[in-house]
Amino acid sequence: MTAVKQFQVTFDCADPERVARFWCEVLGYVVPPPPKGFDSWADFNRSLPPERQGTAFACVDPTGVGPRLFFQRVPEGKVVKNRQHLDVRVGTGLVGDERLAKLEAERDRLVALGAVCTQVLLADGFNESCINMQDIEGNEFCLD
Fold first, then answer.
1. From 43, 111, 115, 132, which residue has the greatest number of CB atoms within 10 Å?
2. 54-88 exposure pattern, b = at least 16 Cβ within 10 A, e = fewer
3. pLDDT for 42-95, tens place per residue?
4. Does 78 fall in a domain?
5. Is residue 25 part of a domain?
6. Are the beta carbons of 6 and 67 closer than 8 angstroms?
7. At residue 47, what are phi and psi to the nearest 5 degrees?
């Protein structure tokens, strides 16, 4: 049996810091401290060669339980549907109208941060309600 390994989730994007800070708000994550010798990430960024400035950013779960999220700049924009996505679990244990109300409240909070709601899937007797969303650069995720 293989031991469980730590992992990080990596996002390709145009503006790593902006997208990272969006996901900090979504998940309650934080920006880790800057490397030793730097008072801020801005100071660290300015120390890099111009072509490397602003190319990456990260955020972490302050409890240490969730995976690290890493954001890296890529030259191309998003053009097709993600092959994988995050399910943000805000309705766990809830059913029916109570679940839908919780999902809709979180949807409204995230839309105010720049997310886009693409579809509300209502409970159908087999699956409970969920909401399909896109982050500020169009990456799909679900409120589940």
1. 115
2. eebbbbbeeeeeeebbbbebeeeeeeeeeeeebeb
3. 999 999 999 999 999 999 999 999 999 999 999 888 888 777 889 999 999 999
4. no
5. yes
6. yes
7. -80, -15
Q: Which amino acid is at 1?
A: M
Rounded CA gap, 93 and 90, in Å?
9
Nearest CA to 17 out of 74, 55, 50 is that of: 55
DSSP label of 39? S
Total domains, the chain = 2
Closest CA to 87 of 144, 21, 130: 144
* pTM for the structure as a whole: 0.87
Domain of residue 61: give its range: 8-73
Residue 81 falls inside a structural domain: no
Residues 65 and 121 in one domain: no
